[in-house]
Design a protein that fits this description.
The relative contact order is 0.13. The mean pLDDT is 89. This protein has 3 helices and no strands. With 65 residues, it is an all-alpha fold. The protein has one domain. It is elongated and about 50 Å long. The protein is 74% helix and 0% strand.
Length: 65
C-alpha cells in the first residue's frame, strides 16, 4: 500500500508548485509585471502565502490600456 501512496504524494507535492509557478509566470508576463520575481515569490514563500500575495497585488488587465 505505501509503495503506491508515497509516489503519488511525492508527485502531488512536486506538481502543485510547478503548476503555480507556470500560472504565475504566464499571468505576470501578460500583465507586464516582473514574471521571474513573482514566480520566485509565489513558489518560495511559505505555504501558499506568496501565491495569495501575487493574486492580491497583480495589476488588472483593464488598467494597462
Amino acid at each position: 500500500m505505501s509503495l503506491i501512496v508515497f509516489p503519488l504524494l511525492l508527485a502531488v507535492f512536486i506538481a502543485i508548485p510547478v503548476m503555480i509557478g507556470v500560472y504565475v509566470y504566464k499571468d505576470a508576463q501578460s500583465r507586464r509585471m516582473n514574471a521571474v520575481l513573482w514566480t520566485l515569490v509565489a513558489n518560495f514563500a511559505p505555504g501558499l502565502t506568496g501565491f495569495i500575495i501575487y493574486l492580491l497585488v497583480r495589476r488588472d488587465y483593464l488598467s494597462q490600456r
